[in-house]
Amino acid sequence: MATAGVSPAPGTLQLVPVNEIHLDRDNPRIRKFLEMYGEEPTPEQFYLALGAAGDEEGDNSATFEKLKNSIQTNGGIIQPVILNRKKGKYVCVEGNTRVALYKKFHSEKVKGTWTHIPALVYEEMQDFQIDSIRLQVHLVGTRQWDPYSKAKYLYHLRNSKNVPLHMLVEYCGGREREVIESINAFSDMETYYRPIVQEGSFDTSRFSGFVELQKPNVKQSIAETGFTLTNFAEWIRDEKLYPLNTVRLLPRILRNQKARDAFLKHDARKASELLDRPALSKALSDANIAQLASALTQAIYQLPWLEAEKLRKDQSGETAQLLHETLDALKGVLKAPGDTD
Question: In the predicted model, is pLDDT for residue 316 greater than 80?
């Protein structure tokens, strides 16, 4: 059980002999992945296990080779690994692959100095303090996990370690609703999507579709129209819901017979063409985008509080859905090259 408000004492920066560092093979989230590699997994195999558990940046050999070549070319690492010294024993908390590569380079006598590695060493940390560090590094730090891996770790902490929800929110620096949505999205993806895809075809990039599934009234509309969450997972798999933000259109699509038929036959984009939209006046049709943006901003500022609350509580309504579509369109226009959502 985690203890609130207790942080580890500040770590000290040291050069630690790599032969004294133990890789974190007992981590319950990667143990099952390491078992398939035997007693002495190679650095690449360790990296793959970490990637499968959501501990490292990426989970493929190409990314591993980039990391390996970068360390070898630069003669070492810039970012220190993080170690926990417990009862005189160093255990790697963060940076297992880098430690494994140092060990490999040293044993194979690769040119360079691989006997010691820069490390931030903490003393006698408890499990919840280690979790706190991982969250800071990978959820809000410079080496963030992808959304699926973040959700996987949050799910693990909440359901396997019983970390209180308020602590997860504090760790993440986010909002409670977002943390709950992320955890529930991971659960739904594992429960309904994983069983219907072939081995090796589990696509974590589809995770945002399951986040959208948590939005108000989406699940309710699926059930009300006679479908199941397995059907939803099949729609994700078959790309009927593409792009994935079209999930939020499902309440309107499923409740409109013509749109629903088009969706089941084709996809959400085709179905959205059949949804009722307010007719535009001539003045609106003739306005340029700057004028429309200004008018929308003014309308939002002038929106009565009760109407705004109604939109927030029922985001499956026509006006709320149109606003979501507008928001997505604006993000697409303003997104800089290389930006991700």
Answer: no
**For residue 260, how many other CB atoms are within 10 A of its CB?**
18
Domain ranges of the chain: 12-172, 176-272
Cα 149 from Cα 51, distance rounded (Å): 9
Specify the pairing of strand 116-123 against strand 89-94.
unpaired
pLDDT tens digit string along 243-275?
888 898 899 899 999 999 999 999 999 998 888
Predicted pLDDT of residue 176:
87
Q: Name residue, tokens 């149109």.
A: 322
Residue 60's alpha-carbon distances to 65, 148, 197, 278, in angstroms, are 9, 16, 20, 48
Q: How many helices (H) and strands (E) does the chain have?
A: 18, 5
Tell whether pTM > 0.85. Answer: no
pLDDT at 208: 94
